[in-house]
Amino acid sequence: MADFSLAELESIIHQRAHSGDPDSWTAKLFAKGMDKAAQKLGEEAVETVIAAIRADKKALVSESADLVYHWLVVLGMAGVPLDDVLKELEARTGRSGIAEKASRPKG
Ligand SMILES: N=c1c2ncn([C@@H]3O[C@H](COP(=O)(O)OP(=O)(O)OP(=O)(O)O)[C@@H](O)[C@H]3O)c2ncn1[C@@H]1O[C@H](COP(=O)(O)O)[C@@H](O)[C@H]1O
Questions:
Q1: CA separation (Å) from 16 to 19, 24, 31, 35, 94?
Q2: Which residue among 69, 70, 71 is best mutated to probe the pocket of ligand 1, counting the most ligand atoms within 8 A of its Cβ?
Q3: Nearest CA owner, ligand 1 atom 19
Q4: What is the mean pLDDT of the segment spanning 78-92?
Q5: Which stretches are annotated as coiled coil (predicted)?
Q6: Range in 19-28, 32-41, 51-60, 98-107 the model is least confident about
Q7: H helices then E strands: how many in the chain?
Q8: Over the chain, what is the mean pLDDT?
Q9: How far is 31 from 17, CA to CA, in rounded Å?
Q10: Radius of gyration of the chain from its Cα atoms, rounded to whole angstroms
Q11: Domain extent listing, the chain
Q12: Helix residue ranges per DSSP H, 2-96
């Protein structure tokens, strides 16, 4: 099991986003804005699909890492916390109160 979490990567991205470090890819993406970040996310998604179709496990791991990193950049840029996505996934399992609340009639 890796000693690393998506929450840690989200935190690193948050720190690097406005670091002003000219060597930081994260800072470059944040400076370029959502169009560029979303484009990179799409490219990494396509590269992940290609790796999967080729049954190239090594490439699938590498492209998945690129994909998840760029996905977190896009979430960060949009101001959507990773936790919101995790809560949505949790609700879909039926484990959390969110699913119950969402399906409850208003009023
Ligand atoms: N996980 C990543 C990560 N995955 C991919 N990338 C970068 O994403 C970029 C784009 O990937 P591509 O394969 O498309 O590379 P490219 O062909 O050179 O890109 P373009 O020609 O399209 O510009 C590359 O420069 C990769 O280095 C990442 N950059 C950063 N991180 C994480 O973010 C942290 C902070 O990084 P910096 O912001 O660079 O300090 C790092 O320590 C890592 O933990």
A1: 5, 7, 11, 19, 35
A2: 69
A3: 40
A4: 97
A5: none
A6: 98-107
A7: 6, 0
A8: 93
A9: 8
A10: 17
A11: 6-80
A12: 6-17, 25-32, 34-53, 57-78, 82-93
pLDDT class of 95 with cuts at 50, 70, 90 = confident
> Taking the model in full, what pTM does it have?
0.90
Torsion of CA 59, 63, 68, 73, to 10 degrees: 150
- Superfamily of domain 6-80 in the CATH hierarchy: MazG-like (1.10.287.1080)
Tokens 């470090």: give the residue.
21
**Could you give the ipTM of this predicted complex?**
0.91
| Cβ proximity of 84 and 90 under 8 Å | no
**Tokens describing residue 76:** 């960060």
42 lines ligand 1 (CB under 6 A): no
Helix/strand/coil for 33 = coil
Q: Provide the token pair at 48.
A: 């992940």
Q: Whose CA is nearest to atom 22 of ligand 1?
A: 40
